[in-house]
Amino acid sequence: MVSAIKVWFENRTIFVKLSDGRTVSAAVDSYPNLRKGTPAQWNAYELWNDGQWIHWEELDEDLSVEGFFNQDSEAA
Questions:
Q1: What's the predicted TM-score (pTM) here?
Q2: In what side-by-side order are the strands of the sheet with 46-48?
Q3: pLDDT at site 74
Q4: What is the CATH number of domain 4-75?
Q5: Span 58-73, mean pLDDT?
Q6: Tell me: the pLDDT tens digits for 8-23?
Q7: What is the pLDDT of residue 3?
Q8: Could you tell me which residues are beta bridge partners of residue 56?
Q9: 30-34, 45-49, 57-61, 72-76 — which is least confidently predicted?
Q10: Contact 57, 68 (CB under 8 A)
């Protein structure tokens, strides 16, 4: 199962490095709770369930790796 190993942000884009070596990305504005956040809040994430979930406590946001791919495919 592919999992997230690193998350970072550039120019209002979220990037997720995956355990299989791929990097995926999406616009921060695709996620309403992230859109409201600051760069400091974006960087205060935790990886849960062995990297299957990305969690932002302060922003009340949880993204699953699986859901991230679904979001990416919907935007394509």
A1: 0.86
A2: 46-48, 53-56, 61-64
A3: 42
A4: 3.30.2020.40
A5: 80
A6: 999 999 999 999 999 9
A7: 95
A8: 61
A9: 72-76
A10: no
Burial per residue of 3-38, b for 16 or more beta-carbon CB atoms within 10 angstroms, e otherwise: ebeebebeeeebebebeeeeebebebebbeebeebe
Q: How far apart are CA 12 and CA 23, in angstroms?
A: 16
User: At 67, phi and psi to the nearest 5?
Assistant: -65, -35
For the chain, give the secondary structure using H, E and C. Answer: CCCEEEEEEECCEEEEEECCCCEEEEEHHHCHHHHCCCHHHHCCCEEECCCCEEEECCCCEEEEHHHHHHHHHHHC
Closest Cα partner for 44 from 61, 27, 22, 29?
61
72 pLDDT above the threshold of 60: no
The encoded tokens of residue 42 equal 């974006």
